[in-house]
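Last lecture ended with a question: if I hand you only a sequence, what can you say about the shape of the protein? Today we answer it with a concrete record. The protein is Probable G-protein coupled receptor 174. Below, first the input exactly as provided, then the predicted structure, then a couple of comments.
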Amino acid sequence: MACNSSGSLKDDIYFLYAIVYTVILIPGFIANLLALWVFYAYVKETKRAVIFMINLAVADLAQVLSLPLRIFYYLNKTWYFGKFLCIFCFYLKYVNMYASIYFLVCISVRRCLYLIYPFRYNDCKRRYDVYVCIIGWIAVGLGCLPFPLMRLEQNQTNFSSCFADLPLKDVGTTTSIIMVTLAELTGFVVPLIVTGICSWKTIMSLRENTVLQDHGEKRKALKMILTCTIVFLICFVPYHISFPLAFLTKSGKIENCSARKFIDIFHPVALCLASLNCCLDPIIYYFTTDEFRRRLSRQDVTENMIPLQKTLSHIESRDK
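The predicted structure:
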């Protein structure tokens, strides 16, 4: 039974995407660029998950830089930039999402281990974190390849449509179920369990009186881990509930018209929430990292601007 598609609903969803991405664009760009500027100096002062924060900011900034093309498409309803750029931006969205999930988990695990085993992980070499990041980028990049590959049609010559409007290959019910299950388990369920365990272990450590870590340090670690968990829940739980449903709807496995309409509304809203992580991730840096707040304080910013002001003054005097 064919369901009557509503053109007005599609227009409303396009408008929702355009508005949300426009709202995200400027704050996300400024916040993540500022984060990278702060971490450039901060990386020399601490080993506490800063490498993972840098990579998280890079992942968010990469997605933010692709938003203008998405906004243009959803406002004009036509793609003018060719096949490669369409598929690349489509692929980048999922790389950002799962890279963000990966590095949020890494931050939580790193802080939890540092708190519970301070002497073992206090002198942990920074290069190990770099290796973990490299492995993570490779795993995420390879793991996200099925998303664009499932949307590539060999005989497709007209690329006036992009993103959610790309056609979906029919790979069969069994293969679809296996792919969706693997994506949900590796990209969502396992990371959710790991962050939950880190939160629980950190909460339990607050009840223990030990000389290895002061109570204030434990509270800082708990604040960071809980913030990572909250961002995870807000941004990624709704999407991973809607993702298998949207996949089954797109592939024609769900035929009930009421169910399809609900999913067609719920999935775009969940996707918008997932995109918000570009703006929410910097909250982790600011509200859970003392050094980050210190470097953004008026006094510290002023001190950092003094050399620049002296250089500009020297240039002006030389020109005169």
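Comments.
1. The CA atoms of residues 206 and 218 lie 6 Å apart.
2. The longest helix spans residues 7-42.
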